[in-house]
Amino acid sequence: VPTLAWAKKVFPNSDNPEEELSIAIQKCMRLDAESPLKEWDNHVENLDERAKFLNENNFEYLHIKNALGTNVKVYLANEHVWTSAKELAKDGIPFIANMPTEEVFTAPHKLKTTGVIKSALPLSYNGNLIEDFSITLKNGKIIDFSAKRGYDVLKGLIETDKGTHYLGEIALIPKSSPIAKLKTLFYNTLFDENASVHVAIGKAYPTTIKNGDKLSKKELKEKGLNDSIEHVDFMIGTKDLSITGVKSNGEQVPVFVNGDWAF
C-alpha cells in the first residue's frame, strides 16, 4: 500500500507521489492488464517453464559476465532445485508467496563460487543506501569488497555472522520484467529485487534442495547450503548480462543473452 512517506521517498519531485506510486505498483502487479488473473496465470506458467528447463539441464555452475565488471562462476548446491513463483503449502494448496515476483531461483554452493560480482543497482539496507559496490569471492567466501557509498554499512552486513561471508541465493530475472522497465528504485527489496538478476548474501532456503524441508541442518550443510540470520538480495543484472550454464561434462548452454532469457 503506497503510504505518503514511502511515496515521497520514491517520487520526491512529484506533486502527487501517492498516486504515482499507486500507478507504479499496479504495473508491477500486472493490475493494468485487461485480465489480471489471466495475466498472472500466464506469468506463473512461464516462470514454471523456465524453472523446468534449468532443472532438466542440472548445471554444475553458471558463468555470469557483463561489461560492468561482473565475472563470476556461481556453482550450484548439490541436488539443487530451481524454484519459481508457485509453491505448495503443507496442506497441498498452491500459493504465491511473493507478489510481485519475476524470479526463478536456487541456492549456490556455499564453498565453490569464485569471481567478482558488481552491483547494478543501489541496495537499500536498513534505511541506508549502498551504491556502486562489489564483492570478490574465492571458494564461496567473500574475501574482498568495495563501495563508493555505504562502505561501512556493507562491511557491517558482511560481518554480521559467519554465514554473511557467503551467498545464499542466485535468482534469474530478465530485463523485460515490468519492474525493470519502470526504472524506479522502490527502496524496498521485495520490489527492487524483481528488476534484475540478483544474488543474496546470507541464508539459503532449504526448499532449493531436493527434499530440503526434510533434511537436518547438518545434511543441508553437506549439500552446500549456507546458513545465516541474514538474507539480503542485491541486483547484478544489466542489459548486456550473459549467463552460460555449464554441466558437469563441460557442455555449455546459453541461459541469458543481453540481459534476457536465451530460450
The unreliable regions are none
How large is the radius of gyration?
A: 18 Å
Rounded to the nearest angstrom, the distance between the terminal CA atoms is 35 Å
Q: DSSP strand (E) fraction? A: 25-35%
Tally of individual helices: 7
**Helix and strand element order:** HHHEEEEEEEEEHEHHEHEEEE
Kindly state the percentage of residues in helix: 10-25%
Largest sheet: 9 strands, antiparallel
| Morphology call | globular
Helix/strand structural class: alpha+beta
Number of strands: 15
Mean pLDDT: 96
Q: What keywords describe this structure?
A:
globular, 263 residues, 29% strand, four-stranded antiparallel beta sheet, nine-stranded antiparallel beta sheet, alpha+beta
Tell me the layout of helices and strands:
Layout: H1 4-10, H2 17-28, H3 36-57, E1 61-65, E2 71-75, E3 86-88, E4 94-96, E5 104-106, E6 114-118, E7 123-125, E8 128-138, E9 141-149, H4 151-158, E10 167-172, H5 178-182, H6 189-192, E11 198-202, H7 217-222, E12 231-235, E13 242-246, E14 252-257, E15 260-261
Helix pairs in contact: 1-2
